[in-house]
Amino acid sequence: MGTQQLESVPEPKYWHLKTVLSEALDSDFTVGEILPNERDLAARFGVARATLRQALEQLELEGRLQRRRGVGTTVAPPRVGVAVGAEQHVWPGAVGDAWQPADCTPAVPPAAVVGILESGDDEQVHTVRRSRVTHGQPVAAELLYIPTSSVPDLSAIDAPSGPARARAVLRELQRLDLDGQDSAVELGSARADDARELDRLPGAPVLVVTTRFFAEGRTAAVSIATYRADTCRLTFGDSGGVEIHHDPERKAS
After folding, report:
1. Residue 235 and residue 240: Cα distance in Å, rounded?
2. Would you say 5 and 47 are in contact if contact means Cβ atoms under 8 Å apart?
């Protein structure tokens, strides 16, 4: 295929290139196909490699491309539909919860979480790590921070670590009467631990959902769930819940 030159346009060159590349993904490539290297792509479209990288990064942010370890840049599949919120407030680990507990360890939470929990700077809390898989694909990783005051009877449970300990913490948490919860969503970058668990590269775009659970007039737990931005699209319904829907405009070639 010959070199394709870009017309002079008032918008940033990388943004126009992103549009051209998006059309090429629809017509010239199939889902899962590996893109040519940056040098060949830059030559094909007649742009500098720096401009190409900006366009590729934007397409990755929009979920059109995926960077995979040891593979390269591939055409992304359609987004996967995953329900995040529920119409009624429920504790993590309740019946029907799609998250899988992986571990539970005592640890001092990040400063931002300390502020939400109003705990001491050096106070350890139960840190539950959970993961979520849809259609065999990892889509989210979660850290759930639970103060010892929220699960005071946990010391009697003989489950020192691992998934059993995580399930025990969640069972004890559900003994509290849940007063309510609220969530906030923001765009972020995958940290090394999250990237490894989500099969992404560090720094890849992610959606971070922070949820506070209230009981007895205080914050009883904080969840920080990290979703793959390339596979998830969040929408908000009248119920106040958050859902991730399949993108009907994206078709597999």
Report:
1. 10
2. no
Mean pLDDT, residues 26-32: 87
What is the pTM (predicted TM-score) of this model? Answer: 0.68
C-alpha 25: how far from its chain's center? 24
CATH architecture of 82-244: 3-Layer(aba) Sandwich (3.40)
What residue type is 140 in one-letter code?
A: A
Letter string b/e over residues 201-221, b meaning 16 or more CB atoms within 10 A of that residue's CB: eeebbbbbbbbbbbbeeebbb
Q: Which pLDDT value is given to residue 232? A: 76
Helix (H, G, I), strand (E, B) or coil at 61: helix
Q: 């840190």: which residue's tokens?
A: 127
Angle between helices 49-61 and 38-45 (to 10 degrees): 100
Q: Which residue has the tokens 């005051």?
A: 149
Q: Tell me where in the chain the CATH 1.10.10.10 domain(s) lie.
A: 13-75
**3-class secondary structure, 65:** strand
Question: Would you state the pLDDT for residue 159?
Answer: 63
